[in-house]
Specification:
2 copies of one chain form a homodimer.
Chain A lengths: L9 H15 L5 H7 L5 H26 L5 H15 L7 H11 L4 H6 L5 H16 L2 H7 L6 H15 L9 H24 L3 H30 L20
Helix pairs in contact in A: 1-11, 3-4, 3-5, 3-7, 3-11, 5-10, 7-11, 8-10, 8-11, 9-10
Amino acid sequence: MTEALAPMTGEELEAKLRQIGAERYHNLHRFHRRLHSGQCAYEEVQAWALNRYYYQSMIPIKDATILTRMPNSADRREWRKRIEDHDGSHEGEGGIERWLALTDSLGFSRDYVTSAKGILPATRFAVDAYVEFCRARSLLEAVASSLTELFSPAIISERLAGMLAHYKFVSQDTLAYFSKRPVQAKRDSDFALNYVKAHARTRQEQDAALAALEYKCAILWAQLDALWSAYVDGAIPPGAWVPGKTLSEQAA
Amino acid sequence: MTEALAPMTGEELEAKLRQIGAERYHNLHRFHRRLHSGQCAYEEVQAWALNRYYYQSMIPIKDATILTRMPNSADRREWRKRIEDHDGSHEGEGGIERWLALTDSLGFSRDYVTSAKGILPATRFAVDAYVEFCRARSLLEAVASSLTELFSPAIISERLAGMLAHYKFVSQDTLAYFSKRPVQAKRDSDFALNYVKAHARTRQEQDAALAALEYKCAILWAQLDALWSAYVDGAIPPGAWVPGKTLSEQAA
């Protein structure tokens, strides 16, 4: 029956997008509550940082995938800022480098982290699904899937305050990734929200944009489900990082 | 150092492939132990069948993807039997139809099952990763990833006996899918094993084949992790099927 419905106004569409965040964004996941409230064991924070690195490392690949699909310079100029943020302009800069400072501080070697050998298969499947979504779906859906950043400034300030208050093994320095993100995320999500409101004109396009944001929320949620199952519940799948083992004892 | 190693013999390669099964095949997963030993609640069996349908439904897509990459008729003739097994030759035949007989018997409408609306996102990510792997990697790796069928006849007989003994709500009829599979799986895995032994000549190719089988084991394992997390542990992700709700109450 979707075809018969009139398009929503931009404000209605935005309200629906924000409602998806209110209901499905991963700040609602029990792993994040555990992380932010100081209930995570050191090993659980390690596992979170190790797995989340793979997500971070694929974000510029995802954004480059979107760049390949943007027909005009003005949009590409905006979008490429995302890649600049993550990769920096010089060796030792950028969001990925800041994430590695966190995994450094948690005792992982950079070779091990960047090899992604120890990540959960479910992390890989979810993250790869995100990149593939941005390659295969419409440009509108690809842009809409980035709109989880509408909700990230709130979770990041919650995380930063909670982790600093509760864990001795993190600091402003090792969590520097997060202090940079809110301003970038705000700029990026402003652009993406305007893009989606301007380009989703039919009801079908609007519904596709909403579904894309739900899909992205599921990608974030699935990563935390897998962390919980493996490292809180203790059911580590074959081949994934095992806390307490030396790197040479980890699966090759 | 892999490059420096001599190739294994075919027997050594086969032994390594079988060892992966002995260590990583999903018959070792706690969800399967629970399923086969009668400890699953009705709703858990429903969730398993609903989610596993998506895997079944994508197998012919995966096999057609492999067909598109096979350069010679003789190999394609063998491989297309897999599609015939799943799709049948007439309406109402084939493995997918037999799987739907199972989901019918568990109270799902066919529309709901085939829409895949209620499956766990982690199921979708894992299954889609499998299809993508068979599209993007070498043909050798795609064929090697099918070798979990070397191990499936054993798990299937265990499952059939266990489920018939323990659950009143299943029968030989509703589990007909499984009685057909062992003979097909044996034929298919004989072909694929010979193919891999013949085409993986360098040590690098052999290692790639082994890694492909590990990847496939992880795909199966991740599906059971997600089922456990959602329906045994009770942490159902947003949008997935909720036991006990009517279909109209499920997320759209």
